[in-house]
Design goal:
Helix content is 37%, strand content 23%. It is α+β, with helices and mostly antiparallel strands.
Length: 371
C-alpha cells in the first residue's frame, strides 16, 4: 500500500536502477529466494561516462561502480517482491493512512477512504518522507536533514543515441546526464543533480518542480538544452532533495520503521540493500520473539542501527561527488577515479561497507508471527 499524499492506484513500475553488492546483500537475497528472479531482470550494470562541453570523455567508470553485483530497476524489484508476498499478503492500493491510534491489543489504523482497521503491529517502510513516521513519531522536519542538493529524473526519447550506460556533463554545482534504457534502445532516462539551499516547493506539483530544474540548468552547454526541452513534455518526473533521515529510536509502542524511513539517504546510501536486510532481520526477530514484539523491535534495532548508519553515510557524499562545487574539485574527482588503484579501492570499500553485519539464519516458521 502507498501511504503518500497521492496514493498509487496500482503497483508502480519503472523508476531508477537500484543495486545490491557485498556478502550481506547476497546472503539475504539468497535466503529470501529472490536471486534467480532478480538475475532474470537485472540491467547488466550501468557504466558512467563524464564528458566536457564538446562531448569528449573525461572519466569512465565501469558498470560495477554504480551498479554493484546485481542492478535492477526499482519497479522490477517491486514486482518481484510483490509476486513473492502476494499469496500471504493483502495489498490495498489507492488509499493512505490518516491516523494511528494504539489500543491495549493493537493499533487502530484510519484510512483516507474512511475505513478503519485493527492490526497487531504497524511497520513503516514508506521511505524518506514516511507518512507512518510522521503520524507515529512527529513531523518530518524533526528527522530529515537537507544535504545541500536536489536530484531529478524523467524519461525521454533516446535522440542522442546513447548506448549502454549513461553519459554526463558537469559545471560546478550541477550535473546533467542521460542514460539508455537497457530494454528499449529508443528510450532513455535523464538524471540531474544541482546544489541549492533548502527550497520551498510543493512536492506534488511537477510543473513547479520543472521550473526549478529549468532555472538551475538554464544557459548550460553540451546537450543540456535538449534535455530541458524533453523535461517540459515529460509526463512523469521524480524530483526530491538529497537528504537523510535520522530517528533516535526506530520503534514506538507497536509501530516500527524499516529502511529509509528509519535511517536513510535519498541517493548513495545503499538504501535499497539496507532496507531488504532490515526487512529480513525484523521478520526473523518477530518470528523468534513468539509474540513479544517489544523484544523483537529491540533486537532488530540493536543488530542493524550501526550497520545502517555506516551505509547511510555514503549519501552525505553523493551530491558532492556528482556535482562538485568548483572546477578544481571536478578535475580532482576525474583525476583520482581515472587511476585504477584508487577506483578499485573505492569498489572494495563499497563491498566492505555493505557487509559489516552478521546475519542470523532465522528458521522458517511463520506460525507464531503476529498479523
Amino acid at each position: 500500500m502507498d501511504t503518500a499524499a497521492n496514493p498509487a492506484p496500482a503497483l508502480r513500475g519503472g523508476g531508477q536502477a537500484v543495486d545490491f553488492r557485498g556478502e550481506t546483500h547476497r546472503t539475504v537475497l539468497h535466503r529470501m529466494g529472490l536471486t534467480p528472479e532478480l538475475r532474470r531482470v537485472e540491467t547488466g550494470g550501468s557504466p558512467m561516462r563524464f564528458v566536457d562541453e564538446r562531448g569528449r570523455t573525461l572519466l569512465h567508470l565501469p558498470a560495477e561502480f554504480a551498479g554493484g553485483e546485481i542492478e535492477v530497476l526499482r519497479g522490477d524489484l517491486a514486482q518481484v517482491l510483490y509476486e513473492h508476498s502476494r499469496p500471504h499478503t493483502k495489498y490495498i492500493f489507492g488509499d493512505s493512512i490518516t491516523r494511528l491510534t494504539e489500543t491495549p491489543s493493537g493499533v487502530r489504523v484510519d484510512f483516507q477512504q474512511g475505513v478503519s482497521r485493527d492490526f497487531d503491529l504497524v511497520i513503516g517502510a514508506d521511505g524518506l518522507h514516511s507518512n507512518v513516521r510522521r503520524l507515529a513519531f512527529g513531523p518530518e522536519e524533526d528527522y530529515v536533514s537537507h544535504l545541500g542538493y536536489y536530484a531529478a529524473t524523467w524519461q525521454l526519447r533516446n535522440d542522442l543515441g546513447v548506448r549502454k550506460g549513461s553519459v554526463g556533463y558537469n559545471v560546478p554545482g550541477r550535473f546533467a546526464s542521460v542514460g539508455a534504457d537497457h530494454r528499449d534502445p529508443a528510450q532513455a532516462g535523464a538524471f540531474v543533480v544541482f546544489a541549492a539551499p533548502e527550497l520551498s516547493y510543493d512536492r506534488h506539483d511537477p510543473e513547479q518542480q520543472k521550473r526549478l530544474i529549468d532555472n538551475a540548468f538554464a544557459g548550460l552547454g553540451w546537450e543540456v538544452p535538449s534535455l530541458l526541452a524533453s523535461l517540459r513534455q515529460a509526463p512523469d518526473l521524480y524530483f526530491d532533495s538529497i537528504s537523510r533521515a535520522d530517528v533516535d529510536t526506530w520503534s514506538t509502542g507497536r509501530v516500527c520503521l524499516v529502511g529509509d524511513a528509519a535511517c536513510g539517504a535519498t541517493i548513495g546510501g545503499m538504501g535499497t540493500g539496507t532496507a531488504v536486510v532490515a526487512a529480513y532481520v525484523l521478520a526473523g526477530e518477530l518470528a523468534r520473539a513468539q509474540g513479544d514484539y517489544r523484544a523483537a523491535f529491540t533486537r532488530y534495532e540493536g543488530r542493524l542501527r550501526k550497520y545502517a548508519q555506516i551505509c547511510q553515510a555514503g549519501g552525505d557524499r553523493t551530491g558532492r561527488f556528482l556535482a562538485p562545487g568548483t572546477a578544481t574539485r571536478i578535475r580532482l574527482r576525474n583525476t583520482l577515479l581515472s587511476r585504477p588503484l584508487f577506483l578499485n579501492g573505492m569498489l572494495k570499500l563499497g563491498e566492505k561497507i555493505s557487509s559489516t553485519v552478521d546475519l542470523p539464519d532465522y528458521p522458517v516458521d511463520t506460525s507464531r508471527v503476529v498479523r
